[in-house]
Every structure is written in C-alpha cells, then in structure tokens.
Design brief:
5-stranded antiparallel sheet; 482 residues; mainly beta; 2 helices
C-alpha cells in the first residue's frame, strides 16, 4: 500500500472542496509500539484526499491510496492515553475525534458474535482491548473472558467516552448464559463491571446499546459509527489500609480511595492564622465514581468548611480556605452518598493559594482568507487578585498571519482577538494557540485557552473534554471578478 505523508500542491478543484466531515474511526485505539490500519467514516474525505493530524506527536497518522483508510503508527515511547485526530483538506477541517493509545494487546471483534454459541468458538482472553462496532439495529457483541477463582476482573467499556452517540450497556454471563454481573452508567453513559469469580473458567462479556439522545423506541440500536473499546484486566488485590497517622505537610499531593461504604479518609495538618490554601479533590475528573466531599474541622471537631461540588458545575470540590488561627486542623475526604469501593479513587492536593487564569475559546476551528481578517472570541475567568496587566495573544500562527495582543479586563469576561492575513499569505492548515500571560508585579504565568470537544447533548465526560490547539485554515485570496 502506498502511504502519503505530504500534501504536494493544492489544485483549483481542491480549493473549492466542501468541508470534510469525520464521524468515526475504527478501531478507535492501538497499542504502544504498534501500527494500526484504520477505517474512517465521514463526508467529503475522498476528493481531495483528506490528510490527518494528531495531537500526540508520538502518534503519526498517514493517508493511503484507498479511500478513508489510514495507517496509524504509535511510537514505542508514546504515553498511553487518549489523543485527538483531525482530518483536513483545502475545504476545511473536521471536528476532532478521540483515539486511545493503550498498553494491552488489541483484538478486533470477529463476527458473528451475537450469540453465546458464537463466542464459545473463540479463545477466551484477558488483559486485552476488544475493538468492536454495533453496526446494525439489534446488534449484540459477545466476548469470551478468561477468569480465575478469586481474581477480580474489571471490564471497562469506552463507547460514549470516545464520542460515539450511544448509551451502551454490558452483561457478564456464565457458560450457561446466566447473568452474573451487569453494568450500565458509570461516570458517564459507559458501563463498568468488577466481578470476582468463584471458580476458574470462561465468562462472557455481552455488549449492546440504546439510543443516545434517548428515543421512545428502547430497542438495541446500531450503526456503522457506533464504535467502542472493551478493556479487560485482572486487578491486583488492594493493599490493606495502614494504621499510621495521615499527616499532611503542605504543599501536599497524594492519591487515595474510599475503599468501602461509609469510610472517610482523615488527614491532619498545621496552619498559621491567615494561611490561604487551595484545596482540590479530583475524583470524577479522573473517571472515578466517587462523588467527593471535603470538610475541614478544628482540633475540637468544629466544622469550618464543608463543600461538595466545585465552581462552574464541576462535581469535584476545589475551594480555597483561610486558617482562622494558628493550630492543627483535620481534612476529611468522603463520598456524598457514603459509597465506597476500590474504584472510588481520588487525587488530593493542598497548596498555598495563587491567583489563576482560565480561558475558553468560542469554537474549535477558524477559517481565514488571504487579505482578510476573522474575529476570535474567548471568555476569561480570573480567580484571585492580579496587580499587573494581563494580555491575550495568538501564537504559533503561520507566516503571513498576525494578531495584535488584547488586554484582559480587570474582572475577566469576553476578549476579542483579530486574526489578519496578508494579501500574499500562503494557503495553510495547522493548529495554533491562544495564550494568556501576566507580567510583574504578579508572578509571571502563561495559560493556554481551550475549546470544548464538540459533542451533542453531553451526559458525562468523554476521554478528552477540552483541547488547547484550535485549528486555522488559511485559503488563497479569491480571484477578482473581471
């Protein structure tokens, strides 16, 4: 197969091409150090052939001589986790789609696998990532899973989290087809099953999906774009809780979990009067089912702070708090509904509070014609006090494109930048960035603005929710009418 790695020239027909669309990629993941042949679905990708870009520089996506076929090469030192892929040509760029880099061996589904009898013909697997697609209405995919007595298995499905418009569900069956465990929603619409077998043998993971957005018809749905990944792992036994005192020395960052129902993790720390601390418990941000709460009490047990959700609708608490006097305090992390399990993980940080900046772009991509300009809008949020000027500026712009910096209002809010292209600016397609930066007397900091990953009617998080690399398409100046 002939792989294309460069875009040589742009024809007049290409310049007039319709914007491309990108609906799915299958398989939607690959193993570190491997190459993956993928098939994409979408409109206006063939003429001209769309090129590809990936947010992870260790993941290279090459187009081939077959329509909608791409070879993805994942470096041996690539970091596991999700990344974004865009397809583009002179007509424009697609919305980004999620591709997941994993450490486990990748397995493609083998049809037919609707019935248990079909799955029983295949070798049971464990420690793999199954890649499947529910390609037609009523489709059900079944996978044999190797189970060992007393060894907890974890079945985690990524479908909605990849951006597939479905509400997936999963059952775990024994050899007779009897359900031994089931999963539907977790931190989003994707199911998660943890199960400890009572005997060695083969179990069967059964995957199906309902419509999303919800429809009156509750039948199992299907479609060529309903791709998913089922990651199967055998969990190590959790370490027993220690009896040592949990003392924090600020600044502190640690990981923990609420191992069982009604459990609370208690930490002690000392502070001086007026110490301003920023506390952050990340749980649902790391796809944990923990609905975290955070309390601070004094040495006598008086509650001084009790928070659940964070600001701007965040489910994770992230307050800043001032110590009322010198002394010892207790910090308590718990689940709002008193749930607990090895999956109820969290990350806790406690550090001195510093003013922070954040900014959100109005869209994921911009188009600019040579000789013209386009306005870019971002919403800036400031927490804390800044004494110096704060500016927003566009960086990593292509040759022939410029933008004057804009000052950020004292209270934040909307900021506008104008991208201008010279009359002789060359056609180009590439990501750029928008940076917020502070100047003395404030501590110098630089923050990149982000856009929300496009998705319809979100119900829980995708594997990637924001990105700081908006796209810029620069097209040639239109020919003047005679």
């Amino acid at each position: 197969m002939k792989w294309l790695c460069a875009w040589i020239g742009v024809t007049a027909a290409a310049s007039a091409a319709s914007p491309p669309g990108f609906e799915s990629i299958f398989p939607a993941g690959g193993q570190v150090g491997k190459r993956v042949e993928t098939q994409v679905a979408g409109k206006n990708l063939e003429k001209p052939p769309a090129l590809a870009w990936c947010s992870n520089p260790k993941v290279v996506v090459l187009g081939g001589d077959k329509p909608k076929k791409y070879l993805i090469s994942i470096a041996a030192d690539a970091s596991p986790g999700p990344c974004l892929i865009r397809l583009y040509h002179a007509g424009g760029v697609t919305e980004p789609r999620i591709f997941e880099v994993g450490q486990n061996r990748e397995v493609l589904e083998k049809e037919p696998n609707n019935a248990l009898s079909d799955a029983q013909k295949n070798q049971p697997e464990m420690g793999v990532a199954f890649n499947g697609v529910l390609d037609k209405g009523g489709d059900v995919d079944t996978y044999p899973v190797h189970a060992r007595k007393g060894k907890t298995i974890r079945l985690e499905l990524h479908g909605y989290a990849l951006g597939s418009s479905m509400d997936p569900a999963m059952q775990l069956l024994d050899a007779r087809g009897v359900e031994v465990a089931a999963g539907h929603d977790s931190h989003n619409l994707d199911p998660l099953i943890r199960y400890t077998p009572t005997a060695d043998g083969t179990l069967y993971a059964r995957v199906f999906a309902f419509s999303h957005p919800p429809a009156a018809n509750v039948a199992y749905v299907g479609g060529a774009n309903l791709v998913y990944r089922l990651i199967t792992t055998e969990e190590a036994a959790p370490a027993p809780p220690g009896d040592e005192a949990k003392t924090l020395t600020i600044p502190a960052t640690l990981k923990g979990h609420i191992a069982k129902p009604h459990e609370e993790d208690i930490f002690t720390f000392t502070a001086k009067k007026g110490d301003d601390l920023h506390l952050n418990v990340r749980a649902q941000a790391i796809h944990s089912p923990l609905d975290a709460t955070l309390r601070i009490t004094d040495a006598a047990g008086k509650v001084l702070l009790d928070v659940d959700d964070g600001e701007k609708g965040s489910p994770d608490p992230a307050p800043h708090w001032k110590a009322p006097k010198d002394g010892e305090y207790r910090l308590i992390v718990a689940d709002r509904f008193h749930h607990g399990s090895p999956d109820h993980r969290y990350e806790l940080s406690v550090k001195p509070f510093q003013p922070t900046l954040a900014a959100t772009l109005d869209t994921h991509a911009y188009r600019l014609e040579a000789g013209k300009s386009v306005e870019l809008r971002l919403t800036v949020r400031r927490e804390g006090t800044f004494n110096g000027k704060i500016q927003a500026r566009a960086i990593k712009l292509p040759a022939g494109v410029s933008a004057a910096p804009a000052e950020v209002p004292a209270k934040g809010g909307e900021v506008k930048l104008t991208l201008k292209a010279a009359a002789d600016a060359a056609e180009s397609q590439a990501p750029f960035a928008v940076e917020l930066f502070t100047a003395p007397p404030d501590a110098v900091q630089s923050v990149l603005a982000t856009y929300a990953i496009p998705f319809t009617e979100p119900r829980g998080e995708l594997l990637i929710t924001t990105d700081a690399q908006p796209w810029l398409t620069v097209s040639a100046q239109a020919a003047k009418a005679k």
